[in-house]
Specification:
The complex is a heterodimer. Chain A has seven helices and five strands, in the order H-E-E-E-E-H-H-H-H-E-H-H. Chain A has a four-stranded antiparallel sheet. The relative contact order of chain A is 0.09. Chain A is elongated, with a radius of gyration of 24 Å. By secondary structure, chain A is an alpha+beta fold. Chain B has four helices and nine strands; from the N terminus they run βαααβαβββββββ. In chain B, strands 1, 3, 5, 6, 7 and 8 form a six-stranded mixed sheet that branches. Chain B has a two-stranded antiparallel sheet with strand order 2-9. In chain B, strand 6 and strand 7 form a beta hairpin. The longest helix of chain B is centred in the N-terminal third of the chain and has 18 residues. Chain B is globular. In chain B, 55% of the residues are buried. Classes of the chains: A alpha+beta, B alpha+beta.
């Protein structure tokens, strides 16, 4: 949380601190994935805040990226001059393992309202090119989310009693799960049900994590949209504890051999 | 036992398989063990058929579960195991289609192994990968690292999954069993599960067994 008193009415953002640069660089690396060296965006500025929960930290970042000019017709139809983007990233850091939970980028008019603020104030109200203010963009599903297979699911979230940011964040993680494991659900109802199972499984995994005395990491796996009952019934083998099985002779131990 | 051992680096372990939506872990645990025994006795690593056990082991219950000790017995009675290629996995019960002529591997017997993890490690290092059964607590969400659940949460009395011990060692002084699972390579550490060694974690030492190839 910003360590400066929150200015009335304005969102006070902590200026970039070394701690933010790590997750920011991770987010930039993901953003640039697959790009040739000369075509990669550069990080110009970053600010944001970090929230800690359990053994993880959730970074909400505002980063200004600079896209290099593009003159290569195979990449951009028309020559594009250098472009400044404003991105909001959410990076989950669990024991040094980063996960990019959210990425919203858009060209920005770089007029900073409240211009003239002393740099040290660390306060800025940056308006996204598309006109809605930064905070709401942080929690609004990414506009192009609506175009993907998951769009039928998003409206359902508004009916949930979940707090807005929780459900949006969970949507983002669940969306990644659906993509990563190529899930398709028959109906909106099924998608809604699987999302709620997924969310409660995230809580279960965190509890298992908290109670583990080893070095194991628990979290999202390909079974994360199954209830415990479904998982047991489909993948496990209760006979092992119920039936004695055939008697087998005891092997000689190695020392005996 | 030696401080560490890993049969994967010695060519005694086939690739991680995927049981699919079927409770056939018992068959994968047994074929993994027989693959290792055959390799050690005959020098050939063959991927063996779990489907043959699902279809032809009439004592066990295919996707509804089974016991390694019954499976060893079924393999002896049937006359051996066909390879995965000859009798490939379908993930559901079919009519038995076993052909003794096609069997590439046979076993002579099966044995129960010590419940002492030190002795178990020594046996594994000398004689090959071991079929075990464990409580699968937490495995639904396991991603990587050495699992060491609290004992009441992972009781050795509630065994519900069969897997294969392929090695053991220490990671930053934490002793572990390297366990080959049958949920595909997109689970765990490329299909493997690492469980704390030396504390009887999740009942890993309660149902250790192996086939015998003379």
């Amino acid at each position: 949380a910003p360590n400066k008193p929150r200015a009335a009415g304005a969102q006070a953002w902590e200026l970039a601190s070394p701690e933010l640069l790590g997750p920011a660089r991770f987010a930039l690396e993901i953003y640039n994935r697959g790009r040739a060296a000369g075509a990669r965006a550069a990080l110009k500025a970053v600010s944001g805040r970090v929230r800690r929960a359990g053994q993880g930290s959730l970074y909400s970042l505002k980063a200004t990226l600079v896209e290099p000019p593009c003159n290569d017709p195979t990449v951009c139809q028309l020559p594009v001059s250098k472009e400044t983007l404003l991105c909001s990233f959410e990076v989950l850091d669990e024991l040094g393992k980063h996960m990019l939970l959210r990425r919203d980028c858009g060209p920005v008019d770089t007029k900073i309202t409240g211009a003239g603020q002393p740099r040290g104030a660390g306060m800025a109200q940056i308006r996204l090119h598309s006109g809605f203010n930064l905070d709401s963009s942080l929690f609004q599903p990414n506009p192009d989310d609506r175009n993907d297979t998951f769009s039928s699911f998003l409206p359902l979230l508004n009916k949930d009693p979940l707090p807005q940011d929780f459900s949006v964040k969970m949507t983002s993680i669940f969306k990644d799960f659906v993509t990563a494991y190529n899930r398709t659900y028959e109906t909106e109802e099924e998608a809604r049900w699987r999302m709620s199972v997924f969310a409660s499984n995230m809580v279960r995994a965190q509890k298992i994590q908290a109670l583990d005395r080893g070095t194991a990491q628990y979290g999202v796996t390909k079974f994360s949209d199954l209830t415990e009952e479904e998982f047991r019934t489909i993948y496990l083998n209760p006979l092992l504890k119920e039936e004695p099985g055939q008697k087998m002779p005891l092997a000689k131990s190695i020392s005996d051999l | 036992p030696p401080p560490e051992w890993d049969w994967r680096s010695k060519g005694a372990v086939t690739k991680v398989k995927d049981q699919g939506m079927c409770g056939s872990c018992w068959a994968f645990s047994v074929t993994g063990n027989v693959e290792g025994q055959w390799f050690l006795k005959r020098g050939a690593l063959l991927s063996l058929s779990e489907q043959e056990l699902l279809d032809c082991d009439k004592v066990d219950k295919a996707c509804l579960g089974g016991l390694p000790s019954n499976a060893y017995s079924a393999i002896k009675i049937l006359g051996g195991l066909e390879t995965e290629d000859d009798y490939s996995y379908r993930g559901h019960l079919q009519t038995c289609n076993f052909s003794a002529e096609k069997a590439k591997v046979y076993i002579n017997d099966s044995v129960e192994l010590s419940k002492n993890e030190q002795k178990l490690a020594a046996w594994l290092a000398k004689k090959g990968p071991v079929s075990v059964a464990i409580n699968a607590f937490g495995m639904q969400f396991y991603r990587h690292g050495i699992s060491h659940p609290l004992r009441p949460l992972c009781s050795p009395w509630l065994i519900d999954h069969a897997v294969l011990l392929v090695g053991f060692g220490n990671r930053s002084a934490v002793p572990f069993w390297a366990i080959k699972n049958s949920w595909g390579t997109d689970w765990g550490e490329e299909g493997y599960y690492y469980l704390h060694r030396g504390s009887g974690a999740c009942g890993v030492n309660t149902m250790a067994s192996s086939a015998v190839v003379n």
